[in-house]
Every structure is written in C-alpha cells, then in structure tokens.
Amino acid sequence: MDVLITGSTGMVGKSVLLQCIKDKRVKTIYLINRTPLKIKNPKVSELIISDFLKVKELKKNIKNCNACFHCMGITSFGQSSKYYYKVTFEMTKAIADLVYSINPNSIMNYVSGEGTSTAQNSMIYWANVKGKTENYILDKGFKDAYMIRLGILIPENGIKAKTKVYNLFYMLMKPFYPLMKLIPTITTSSKLGLAMINCFYFPSKNKYLDNRKINKLYLADLKKT
Description:
Blueprint: E1 2-6, H1 11-22, E2 28-33, E3 44-48, E4 67-70, H2 81-102, E5 107-111, H3 125-139, E6 144-148, E7 153-154, H4 164-173, H5 177-180, E8 187-188, H6 189-201, E9 208-209, H7 211-224
Parallel strand pairs: 1-2, 1-4, 2-3, 4-5, 5-6, 6-9, 7-8
Helix pairs in contact: 1-6, 2-3, 6-7
C-alpha cells in the first residue's frame, strides 16, 4: 500500500507516520508538509509546499496513492473564522481533489473530532466547518472514506503535541496512563495508526469512527493473525 500523510509534524500525524513505517503492508509513504520533518527512512518521501491550496502542483511527485491519512488541522481557539475555514475546509478540499485525481479508487481518512456536526446545524462554528469538510470527502467518490472523530489520545514513543498547553496536560496525566488505557473511549497513538491502516484492509459500513471504534478496528489485524 502507498499512502499519503499530511500533518506529520503534529502529534496525530506523527503517530500515524510511525505506525506506517513499522507496518510491512505499507510500501511507500508520501509526506506533505509546510515545514520539513527531516525523517530518514527508505519508505518516506517528503514533499514541502508553503501553500496547501496549491497542493495539486505536487501530483507529478506522487507515483501512486492507495490511501490518504489527512491528519493536518488546527484548533479553532484564537483563530479567526476565515482562517479556520481556509485550513479546515479549503485545504482539505485541495488534498482530497489531489488524491482523487491520482487514484479515485483510494481511501481517504480525515481526522475530524468529537462533536462534529454532519448536519451543519450546530451552535459551534468549528463543528459545522468540520461537518462540511466531512461531507465533501464522503461525497467525493472515493472507493472508501472514514471520518476519524478523535477524542482523548495518549501519545507514545516520545511523541509530543506542538501546543505547549497540551504538552503540559499530557505531562500531568502521564502517571494515570496505565488506567486511562483501560478506558474504551480513550485511545493511544499506536492504536490510532494501526486502525488507520486497517481501514484499507477491513472495510466498515460505519464511516464515522470515534475512539471506541478506533480501538476495535485496531484489533482487526491482531484477530486475523
């Protein structure tokens, strides 16, 4: 499987990237970033672009794409509604259009969030923007697509959040990780990464995956082996 990953400089994207590197089913990994991650691995090909709205210019550098794990995103806190819409919807649309033009038979996993409004009738602005983004991907015509409505994620393997406040939270909660991992509504970075890969090999009728479903999908490959 050849995969394209966005947001690998962030906690979620890096979680997925590390799992893809470990997984023998993943042959090639294309990273699209605004700033270099500078990771050295024979599987990885990193593509840098400053403006994601022009991401179609990278098409010539991507030989094939069976799956896209779109992990790039920002918090709505402290952002103008115009900028949040640009990053969340317009940039995601550009990525989806690129992937579809390369291989319409690919799957696309979009890291959304709990509380997203598919009906776009929420009182919360970000929930409606993410809902519109989810709907665009689901209606695009991909072979398959999944909306990863991520909740609490426990980072592993030295992964850290880019936001200082989040890192402080994780530092304070670290002593409780063993207990937190027993809660079915909490997932880990390795489980998320493997669940994303398993979406390709174990299709599900449910296109909206919360933490509980992520934890079940993570087990799919383990049960088979």
